[in-house]
Amino acid sequence: MTRRARWADETYQGIVRTGFRVKRRLFKKRSPFQLVEVVETAGHGRLLLIDGMTMVSERDEFVYHEMIAHVPLFVHPRPRRVLVIGGGDGGSVREVLRHAGVERCVLAEIDPVVVEASRRFLPGTASGLSDRRCEVRIGDGVRFVRETAERFDVVIVDSTEPFGPAKELFGPAFYKDVRRILTKDGIVVSQAGSPFYELSTIRNLGRILRPIFPVTDAYLFTNLTYPGGLWAFTFASKGPRPVKDLKPARVRAARLPLRWYAADVHAAAFALPPFVRKALGR
């Protein structure tokens, strides 16, 4: 975060810069992995930054977290056990635990400072971390997936960009381990970056997932705070199809207090523009 004119400036790939007007700094701490900051902004509420990159803003975090969580949970026929890798802010866990049928949600987060900052300064986002069904495990998510004997119905890879501690979350060995720990109808959804600035990440994830899972796809959502305003997730499963196996009546019957996700939004998110389809080899 730069001090000039009290703005938090993020420079992305050296070609684009976004800024948020800062009212005050609330938290700053360097962990063994990264620099974690929370600032109060003039128009976007509290902002969580990691190494100067925007992770969460109170104003629009619900969009990201609803789309990463409810897409797989409403496609899976009966999600009971969910693993979230990364996502130490707790937003994905919060959305997962809106589903009454979920009995257990494990959060595997490598950096305890992210959890600490989120619990203290983003309590609305981190509220699910205190749910009795949630287990917070501080440690390497890649190692957890490689070594655990537990099985999960849904795995959510809520990672940062593919560098630093998140780099191994974008490799084939990791996704082979994910397949092993998934149950029969298991689904994995992963943060894939911007179609405008990270198309190679989406392409590479598609290439990694196709030989491992019989069903693979990608979907998009829009947001305020991430560079480019358009972001992607990848979807892979052992069988469930992301649009054909969605039952809108089930979404309506759940009556969840959602602000972005809906059955028609879900279906529309998988209508990919040609340049993204081409990157995925479709």
Please explain how this structure is put together.
Strand 11 and strand 12 form a beta hairpin. 46% of the residues are buried. This protein has helices at residues 61-75, 91-96, 112-121, 123-126, 141-147, 172-181, 199-209, 248-254, 263-269, 274-279, and strands at 7-12, 16-30, 35-41, 46-50, 53-57, 81-86, 104-109, 134-138, 152-158, 182-193, 215-222, 230-237. It has ten helices and twelve strands. It has a seven-stranded mixed β-sheet with strand order 8-7-6-9-10-12-11, sandwiched between helices. A five-stranded antiparallel β-sheet has the order 1-2-3-4-5. The protein folds into two domains: 4-57, Spermidine Synthase, Chain: A, domain 2 (Roll), CATH 2.30.140.10; 61-279, Rossmann fold (3-Layer(aba) Sandwich).
Please outline what is shown here.
The protein has 282 residues and is an alpha/beta fold. 29% of the residues lie in helices and 32% in strands.
CATH class of the largest domain: Alpha Beta
Radius of gyration: 18 Å
Provide the domain count: 2
Looking at the structure, what is the overall shape?
globular
Which range best describes the helical content: under 10%, 10-25%, 25-40%, 40-55%, 55-70% or over 70%? 25-40%
- The CATH topology of the largest domain corresponds to Rossmann fold
Termini gap: 40 Å
Overall residue-averaged pLDDT value: 94
The fourth-level CATH homologous superfamily of the largest domain is Vaccinia Virus protein VP39
How many strands?
12
Just name the CATH architecture of the largest domain: 3-Layer(aba) Sandwich
What does the main sheet amount to? 7 strands, mixed
Q: What is the helix tally?
A: 10
Unreliable residue stretches = none
Order of helices and strands: EEEEEHEHEHHEHEHEHEEHHH
Structural class: alpha/beta
Strand content: 25-35%
Order of strands across the main sheet: 8-7-6-9-10-12-11
